[in-house]
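Sample pair:
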Amino acid sequence: EEKWDFVLVSDIHEMGSEKETKRKKFLDELSKKGFTIKKIEDTKLFYGVRAPQQVFWKYQSLLGKPDKKLQNGNSPQDIPVTTRIRIVHFILHNTVTPDLEKLGDLMKKKVFEAAFPLHEKEAVREFLKEKWARWRGLFNKQPIEKIRCYFGEKVALYFAWLGWYTYLLGFAALAGVLTFVAGITLFSSSQVSREICEANTTIMCPLCDEKCPYWVLSDTCTYAKVTHMIDNEATVLFAIFMALWATVFLELWKRERATVVTDWDLYGWDEEEEELAMELINNLQHEPRKYQHSYFRSTIVLLLVLLMIMVLIGIAHALVIYRVIARALFVQSSLGLLREQADTMAVMTGAVLHYITIVVMTKINRRVALFLCNLEKPRTFSQRENNFTMKIFTFQFFTNFSSLIYVAFFLGRINGRPGHYVRIAGRWRLEECHPSGCITDLFIQMAIIMLLKQTISNVMEYLIPWISHKLRKKHKRPQKRSIILGEEEEAEDPCKRQWLSNYELNEVNVFSLFNEFLEMIIQYSFTTIFVAAFPLAPLLAFLNNLFEIHLDAIKMVRLHRRMVPRKTNDIGIWLQVLEAIGILAVIGNGLVIAITSDFIPMQVYKYIYSPCVGENRTDVDCSTGYINHSLSTFRIRDFEPTMGMPAMLPNFDRDEINECRYRDYRNADDYTYTMQFWHIFAARLAFLIIFEHVALCVKLIAAWYIPDDPQKVKNKLLCRKHTDLRKELSTMEYSTEV
C-alpha cells in the first residue's frame, strides 16, 4: 500500500483560470523539491504528497537522530510517522510560489480547500480506537506512549497532564464532599439558623420601593439554613487545603513531566534549534529572523488589551443592572411564587444570562486576541501561540469571573441603607444581601455556571462534530458512476477511498488542542479561586474530566482529521498560567472568607460581644444573640419621600410598626457606623493579611520541599552524559592509536 505524508484538496477549477494557475505553480514548486505527487479526481481534486527521503536524512544529520526511540528499527533511515508529518507540514506551509504566495495564502483565496495528514490503518491507531477512544474504557489507564507515537508529544503531554490533574482532583473532591457533609450536619443545628427561624417578631425593612411589604425574618428560615450549611468553620479549613492542593498539584506535575520527557529523550530538547533546522532543510539560503521588540507596538497592544478588559467589565455591570431590574419586575409579578422568590430568581436567571455571555464572548475574545497577535508580529509560531494564550486567558478570565467578583465582594456592600439607597439611573435600588449573608448567592451563581458549562458545553462538544461528520459523509460521498450507468465496475484506486474518508472527517487547525487546554484551565480556575463558596466544585470537575478525557480521545481518533504532530517537552506557557491561578486562588479564597462569609463577624461577636465574654458559661452557645446584634434599626419616618409607603404585615397594624431592621452595623439615631463595624473591619483586614501570608508561605515551602525533577531523572541524565563522554573519549583514543 502506498504511503502518503499529506493530502491537498482543491475544487475543480476551469483550465487556464487564475486559481488553476496558482495551484499548478505551487505543485510545481513541490516537484522541484523532489516531492512525489499523485492526483485523484472525484467531486474534488485530491493531491497526495510524499517527501523525498533525503529531506529526512538531512533532518537526522542536523539534529543527531532525535527520534531514535520511536524508530522502527528495520532501517536506519526510517523515522517516525509523526516526525515525517511535522516536517512535511512545515515545508508545505513555507514553500513560496513565484507570486510570493504560501499555502496559507492559497487556502484563503480558495485555491486549495484543505490540507491534512492521513489517519492510516496502522496498529497504533487500531489499538487507540479499541482500548482508548471508547466510552467503555472510561476507567482504563491512558496509553500515553501510543498516543505519542500516533499524535506526537504535544497531544500526549496534554493527556498526561489531564490524567494527572484528574487523578489529584479526586483528593480535592473527597475533601470538598467532606466539607459539604460537615455543613449538612449544621443544617438544623446551627444556633444562627435557629435564631432566624424563631425570629417571628423581627420586622425587616422592605426589599424594594413599591410593592414590597415589610417582612418577618423567620420567613427566610430555609435560606438561612442553606447559607450556614455552606458558611461554617470547615469552609475555612477547606480553603486552606485547596491553596496547598494547587501548589502540590503543580509541583508533582513538574516531577511527572520530567519523568515522561526523560523517557522520551526530550529533556534538553531545543525548539528553536529544530525550527532552524527545518527552515534550512526547506531553503538552504534561509536567513534567521532576528529578535526584535517595538515599544510603540507593545504600548498599542497594551492599550487595546486594557480597552477590551474595560468592555468585559462593562458587560459584568450590565449583568448587575439586569439583576436589579429583573428583581424589581419579579417583585411586581402577579405570580405569588415568583414574587416571593424574587431574589433567588434574579440570581438564577442572572447566572444563566452570564453563561450565555460566556459562550458569545468566547468567540469574540478569540478574534480580538488573534488580531492583537497579528499586530505584535511574533517571530515564531511558538511565540505567537504564547502571546495568544496570555491574551485569550486574560479575556476569558474577566468574561467568566467579573460577575462572580461582583457577587462575592460588592453585592450588598455598595447599596446604601434605608432612607439613603444607591440607585441605578435614580430609580432602581441595588440588591441587598440576605441577613444570613451573601455567600449563598455566590454558591448559586457558581453551581449554575459550572453545571451548564459541564453539561451543555460537553454535549455540544460531542454532538456537533458527530452530526457534522455524518452530514459530510452523507453529502460528500457520491454514488459510484458504474452503478448509475449500469457499467461493469472498474477497480478503484485504493488511495481514493482512504482519502475520501479522511476528507469527510471534521477539520482541525493549529488551535484545536489549544481549545481543549483553555477549557481545562478555566475549569481549574473555577475549581480553585472561589472554592470556599462552592466546596462541590472539585467533585463536579472530577466527574466532568472522567468523561472529558475519552470525549477528546473519541473526537481526535474517530471524528476529526489527524492533527499535525507537534514536538514539545512541556505544556508551555500554560504552566505559568496555572501558577498565576494558584496565587489568585489564595487571594480569592482569602477575600471570600474575610468579606463574603460571615465567619469573621461571627468570631468577633463570640469573643467580644457574646454572652460568653467575661463568664465561663457552658450552658449557652456563644453565638446566641448574633442575629439581633448584626441587624441595625431604622425609623420608618426617615424613608425617602419618593418611596411609597410599604404594605403592612397581615397581623400588624400600621400604627404598631415604627421601625424595621436591616443588615448593617449602624447607630439607631444618626445611622453612622457603630464601633462593632470597625472591630469587624479590622478583624477582616487582619484575617486577610494573615491568611494570605500563611497560605503563600505554605505554597513556597511546598514548592521548595518538592523538587521539580525526581532523583531517578537526575541520575538517568547524569549516567547518559557520562556514557556519551566515555564513548567520545574511547573513539578519540581508538582513532589516535590507528
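The radius of gyration is 32 Å.
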